[in-house]
Amino acid sequence: MNGPMHIKKMHIKKTSRQSGLTLVELLIAMLIGAFLVGGILQVFAGARQTYRVHDATSRMQEGGRMALEVLARDIRMADFWGCASNSIQMVNNLNTAGAAYVDFVTGGVVGTDGASGAPDSITLRGGFDAGIDIEPPYGPQASANIKVNAGNGLVQDEIVMVSDCTNGDIFQITNSNPGGSGTLVHNTGSGDPGNYNVTNPGCPGANAHCLSKVYGGDAKILLTREISYNIGTGSEGEPALFRNGAEFLDGIENLQILYGEDINSTGIANYFVPATQVVDMDRVVSIRIAVVTRSNDDFLTGGVAQNYNLLGATVTAPDQRLRQVYTSTIAVRNRL
To answer: Is the peptide bond before 137 cis (omega within 30 degrees of 0)?
Structure first.
C-alpha cells in the first residue's frame, strides 16, 4: 500500500487541485466589471444631475417668492401721504440743487421700460405713519420749526412730511436733536439736499424755509421713503435684484412690469400696459409684475433650450440654465 503506485496516485490527486484563469475568462470578467462600473457611474451621474436640478429649482423658488413678497409689500404702500389723497397736495421744500433731492410730488409710482425685453425698473414713493402728532404752539407761518412730542426717534437730516387731510409739506430736519427736544427745525440747513423753496405758496422769496400753511393738532409727521427696484449684475457676476442701489436677491434675471390704469374711476384697472404706454401714472391702481429667476449652474436642461412664457410672450433661453417665472398682480391700495 505504500509502494510506488500509492505515490503516483497521491501525485495525480495533488495535481488535479491546481486551477487558474484562462485569457478568455479574464476578458469576460473585465467586460462584466466594465459594465458594472459603467452602470454605477451612470447612476451616480444621473443622481448628481437630479440633485443639481432639484437644488437649482429650490433656490429659484425661494428667490422668486421672496422677490414677489417684498415687491408686493412696497407696491401696496406706495403713494401714501397720510389722509391727503395724493402727492398733488404735497409741497416739496427740498432744495432742488442738492444731490440727494427727491422729487416726491411727481407721484408715488414711477416706472421705466426696458428696451427689447430688457429688465424694467420701478420707483415707489410715499410715507408711513410714525405716530408723531403736531403739538402747540402752532405757527406763526413764518416760523422755522414745528413742535412735536419728545422722544420721537427722529434725527438730523431726516426727510419727513407734515400732513393733514388738506395739504402737506416735505422738508429736511436741520436741528441736531429733534428726537429729544421735540422741535423740528426746517431752515435752509447744511445737509444734503437741505431746504430751499422760493416758490412756496406760504411765504416765498427770502423766507424760503416757510411751509405752505400753519399745521395744527389734526396734522401728523410722516417718514418719507423712496424705493427703487432694478436688475443689475451682482457681486458674484450673476444677475440680481437691486433695491435702492444695493444687491438684494441674486439669481433674478429679469423684471417685467405692466401698469393697470383706471380710466373711469371705478378702482379697477381697465387695461395693463408697459410704463411707456401709461396715459396718466396717477391713475394706475394695480401693478402686474413678472420675476424671472435663473439657476447659477448651466447645462441643466438636457441639451434642450428652455422656452418660457413671460407676460404673454414666449422667450427662448440663450443657454441651458433653468428659469422660472413668478407673476403677481398687486393693488396700489392707497389709490383705491
So the answer is: yes
Q: How far is CA 70 from the centre of its chain?
A: 6
Q: Cα–Cα distances in Å, from 189 out to 69, 229, 231?
A: 38, 30, 35
Domain ranges of the chain: 24-76+251-336, 84-228
DSSP class of 83? B
Using a cut of 0.85, tell me whether the model's pTM lies above it.
no
Q: DSSP character for 39?
A: H
At residue 296, the 3 state secondary structure works out as coil
Contacts of residue 146, defined as CB under 8 A and 6 or more positions apart, other chains included, come to 134, 162, 183, 184, 186, 211, 215, 221
The H or E element containing residue 59 is helix 23-76
User: What one-character DSSP code corresponds to residue 303?
Assistant: T
Q: What is the DSSP string of 109-176?
A: EEEEPPGGGPPPEEEEEEEEEEEEEB-SS---TT-SEEEB-SS----TT-EEEEE-SS-EEEEE--SS
Q: Do 170 and 221 meet the contact criterion of CB atoms below 8 Å apart? A: no
Report d(CA 169, CA 184) in Å as an integer: 13
- Write out pLDDT tens, residues 220-278: 999 999 999 999 999 999 999 999 999 999 999 999 999 999 999 999 999 999 999 99
Interval 155-201: pLDDT, tens: 999 999 999 988 899 999 999 999 999 999 999 988 899 999 888 87
